[in-house]
Design a protein that fits this description.
CATH class of the largest domain: Mainly Beta
CATH topology of the largest domain: Beta-galactosidase, Chain A, domain 5
Strand content: over 45%
CATH architecture of the largest domain: Distorted Sandwich
Length: 276
């Protein structure tokens, strides 16, 4: 769906104090209100979007023609990433007119790139240097009421030096899981329960063990690299044990001064049981 010119454009101050450019479009009975936000100190441009969607047999996409020359784009998948061509030279390529990406897709050349991040929209379409993300759709089948009514979502443009490994994964996490603060008594932990000294491993999950014996940490390697990762704990653990994904213990990890060092391979998932 190609929108006509905006109905209005004005500068506003959002509830969190951030300045924004608010743009409003109308198309039939559909109204789209978008706050384009560049927060102080931020490295990404957020598009905070609210839509009263009343379309039929219509798809809404955002599109960014970026000044990048690359034969392949990279898409996040669960606990990793995958590359796909940015051309449609074969019938196989033409059949893949849209690709799934979890929190981000990236287009990079030798020393510069752009990532298109999202918080709830997963259909990407990258052809040449044009990056598109499917925002809303209204098919007649199988659900004739898909996406109808009020919708709220945010996507973001994140330019960066190098390729996606220089910060895209963490920036996408910041968009999807923003930091929250809560009032407390001051008697909590002296620091984070667990901290990783790594620029490519991600602490994805902290949860109670299924058998209630200890805390489970799930770590994955996000950049296709390998090497040691250093884990520091806020409290002295009684034991740290490596487990499989079913939380069955496999081997004990040595702990020295509230910390341990483990080795991780490209896109590997590691699970640890920590008993305090």
């Amino acid at each position: 769906m190609e929108l006509p010119g905006a109905q209005s454009i004005e500068t506003i101050t959002r509830p969190d104090g951030s300045p924004a450019l608010q743009v409003i479009w109308t198309h039939g009975e559909t109204t789209i209100t978008q706050d384009i936000v560049l927060r102080p100190g931020a490295r990404r441009l957020d598009f905070v979007t609210r839509v009263n969607w009343q379309e039929r047999d219509t798809m809404l996409k955002c599109a960014f023609p970026v000044d990048i020359h690359a034969s392949h784009a990279t898409y996040e998948i669960q606990f990793g990433a995958i590359t796909r061509p940015t051309h449609r030279n074969t019938s196989y390529d033409r059949a893949k007119f849209e690709a799934c990406g979890h929190r981000w897709a990236d287009l990079s050349e030798g020393n510069y790139g752009v990532s298109l991040l999202n918080d709830s929209k997963y259909g990407y379409d990258i052809l040449g240097n044009r990056m598109r993300l499917t925002l809303l759709r209204s098919p007649s089948f199988p659900d004739p009421f898909a996406d109808q009514g009020m919708q709220e979502f945010t996507y973001a443009l994140y330019p960066h030096a190098g390729d996606w490994r220089t910060g895209t994964v963490r920036e996408a996490y910041r968009l999807n899981v923003p930091m929250e603060t809560h009032a407390g008594s001051g008697n909590g932990l002296p620091g984070p329960l667990a901290r990783l000294a790594s620029d490519h491993a991600v602490l994805d999950t902290i949860k109670q063990a299924e058998d209630s014996n200890g805390i489970i940490l799930r770590i994955y390697e996000s950049a296709g690299a390998r090497g040691p990762i250093h884990i520091t704990f806020a409290l002295p653990p009684a034991s740290v044990t490596e487990c499989d994904l079913m939380e069955r213990e496999e081997q004990t990890v040595e702990v020295v001064n509230n910390a341990c060092t483990v080795y991780i391979k490209p896109y590997q998932i590691k699970t640890y049981r920590v008993v305090f």
